[in-house]
Specification:
The chain is mainly β. The protein is 0% helix and 46% strand. It contains no helices and 10 strands. The chain has strands at 4-7, 10-12, 18-24, 34-39, 46-51, 57-59, 67-72, 77-82, 91-96, 106-110. The chain has a 6-stranded mixed beta sheet with strand order 2-10-9-4-5-6, with no helix packed on it. A 4-stranded antiparallel beta sheet has the order 1-3-8-7, with no helix packed on it.
Length: 112
């Protein structure tokens, strides 16, 4: 069974930065499109960024120019670098892994 574990969330002031990580237990990582999503309680989960095996990336309009998704196939790990954070970026961030497996999420709170 594939396991997906996110980390790196926390409390940050507006304008600050965070780096999220997503570790995948399965070698399927190397052959899978990966993505970051976020959800505010009571709202639908939304796509933040995705990256294909061939390193093609797609970003939500709301994060373009501020967030950067990347992957390290040697470590089976997905990253999300978040800069110029805004209060509206506050959410639980989830990693979607191989076979559409979801992690437990990591809370990001942007507040002064």
């Amino acid at each position: 069974q594939v396991q997906v574990v996110e980390s790196g969330g926390g409390l940050v002031q507006p304008g600050g930065s965070l780096r999220l990580s997503c570790e995948v237990s399965d070698q399927l990582f190397k052959f899978s499109e990966m993505g970051w999503y976020r959800q505010i309680p009571g709202w639908q989960r939304e796509m933040v960024a995705t990256i294909t095996v061939g390193l093609r990336v797609i970003y939500a309009d709301s994060v373009k120019g501020r967030f950067r998704i990347s992957r390290d196939n040697a470590k089976n790990t997905l990253y999300l670098e978040m800069n110029s954070l805004k209060p509206e970026d506050t959410a639980i961030y989830y990693c979607k892994g191989p076979r559409d497996t979801w992690g437990q999420g990591t809370q990001v709170t942007v507040s002064s």
